[in-house]
Amino acid sequence: MGATPKSAGCIPKPSPGGPDVRPVEGAAADEELALLAKAVGHPARVQILRLLARRTTCVCGDIVDELPLAQSTVSQHLKVLKEAGLIKGEIDGPRVCYCLEPRTLRRLRALIGSL
Questions:
Q1: Within a domain: residue 41?
Q2: pLDDT tens readout for residues 74-85
Q3: Strand 95-100's sheet: what is its strand order?
Q4: Does residue 14 belong to any structural domain of this protein?
């Protein structure tokens, strides 16, 4: 089937703070862009981001069902995306529910737009 919405405890929470006013050029911005680009530099990770973008709730456990990859491979890709701050993972009982981190995605768009 597809990914199914989960309980209200797994609804994405809004990102805190106002507009991001960090510079989009300079050494720190270049380093940040390189880190984020590396995180999205694999087709499976792009697929995961697209899958999460299509959902209004977090996805728990269904990601493996959506991709032609082993559980361990999907877990590794999720770890890379989470370490880069592109997704969030919340514990919901025995599972981890994942959703996008909108603030980091906006930052990635801004950094790419500055090229």
A1: yes
A2: 999 999 999 999
A3: 59-60, 95-100, 87-92
A4: no
